[in-house]
């Protein structure tokens, strides 16, 4: 979490500094692309604040109304961030772009745009480097996309995608600003705004997909399930693990439910002892498994239930 906060603070500082200068430059040069970039940076600034809010609220202790804690607050606010990128960032940029393509406005002096864009690339690039370094620490040796899909901490890749989209958008705007003045075609400025909007919508769709999966109750990986099953079935009193149910409550907290068939000769006291032993073994092996619920069930009942379900 600390590493996630580092990249969030870096992005927040960069976007806050850049947003105002982009709006000023866009107003002076009468550039729709620069105004769209200003909107982009402003939305990113608000997004970082939402992520920090989600991180803070996810740390609240469990209470009577939320016995498993508030970890999913982070997933909720991450999903809000992806919607913000789509609605405010992408939507406004596309609207601005189409409006200026249909009705181009006279171009102003582009000098200030080049200065602002160059400085923005430096600041956003520095933020992106921080985000990449933090994400690489999390992903280890895994391929990039696999690390994104398997990550349970959306704050680790949200900032990375935001910064990457920002840097890509800045280069698109700089190229289009140059072309619009080089060939005296004001509508190209609108094309830049449209392209920035499309970049943001693609990024928001990717982020929304990953955040939604976590918010809806994503469970542990198949490899982890198999390892848990082996640990439990290696216990001397266990006949079979019939079901493993799990869901991430936060990036570092998993709720695990095991439906287990124990030896039929065991009484209630013996089963309780076995449950405590198995719970301790699982939690010792997997530090992120915070809650373990073990439900005993007879093997005959399991077979009968499966037959009737068909």
UniProtKB/TrEMBL annotation:
Keywords: Membrane, Transmembrane, Transmembrane helix, Transport. Residues 223-297 form the Cation efflux protein cytoplasmic domain. Residues 9-216 form the Cation efflux protein transmembrane domain. GO terms for biological process: zinc ion transport. GO terms for cellular component: membrane. The chain crosses the membrane at residues 6-25, 74-95, 115-136, 157-181, 187-208. The keyword NADP does not apply. GO terms for molecular function: monoatomic cation transmembrane transporter activity. It is found in: Membrane. It is a multi-pass membrane protein. It comes from the Bacteria. It holds the Pfam family Cation_efflux. The keyword Ribonucleoprotein does not apply. This is Cation transporter. It comes from Mucilaginibacter psychrotolerans.
């Amino acid at each position: 979490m600390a590493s996630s906060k580092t990249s969030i603070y870096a992005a927040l500082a960069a976007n806050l500094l850049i947003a105002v200068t982009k709006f000023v430059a866009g107003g002076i040069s009468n550039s729709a692309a620069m105004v769209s970039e200003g909107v982009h940076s402003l939305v990113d600034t608000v997004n970082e604040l939402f992520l920090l809010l989600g991180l803070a609220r996810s740390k609240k202790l469990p209470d009577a109304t939320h016995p498993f804690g508030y970890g999913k607050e982070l997933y909720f606010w991450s999903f809000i961030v992806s919607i913000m990128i789509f609605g405010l960032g992408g939507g406004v940029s596309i609207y601005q772009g189409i409006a200026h393509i249909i009705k181009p406005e006279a171009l102003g002096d582009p000098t200030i745009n080049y200065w602002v864009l160059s400085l923005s690339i430096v600041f956003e690039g520095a933020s992106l480097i921080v985000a990449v370094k933090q994400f690489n620490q999390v992903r280890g040796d895994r391929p990039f996309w696999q690390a994104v899909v398997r990550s349970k901490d959306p704050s680790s890749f949200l900032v990375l995608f935001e910064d990457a989209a920002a840097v890509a958008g800045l280069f698109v705007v700089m190229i289009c600003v140059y072309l619009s003045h080089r060939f005296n075609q004001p509508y190209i400025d609108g094309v830049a705004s449209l392209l920035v909007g499309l970049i943001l919508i693609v990024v928001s769709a990717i982020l929304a997909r990953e955040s939604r999966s976590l918010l809806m109750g994503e469970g542990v990986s198949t490899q982890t399930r198999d390892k848990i099953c082996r640990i439990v079935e290696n216990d001397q009193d266990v006949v079979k693990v019939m079901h493993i149910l799990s869901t991430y409550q936060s990036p570092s907290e998993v709720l695990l439910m095991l439906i287990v068939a124990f030896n039929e000769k065991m009484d209630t006291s013996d089963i309780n002892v076995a449950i405590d032993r198995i719970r301790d073994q699982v939690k010792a092996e997997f530090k992120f498994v915070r809650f373990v619920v073990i439900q005993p069930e007879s093997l005959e009942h399991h077979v009968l239930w499966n037959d009737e379900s068909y």
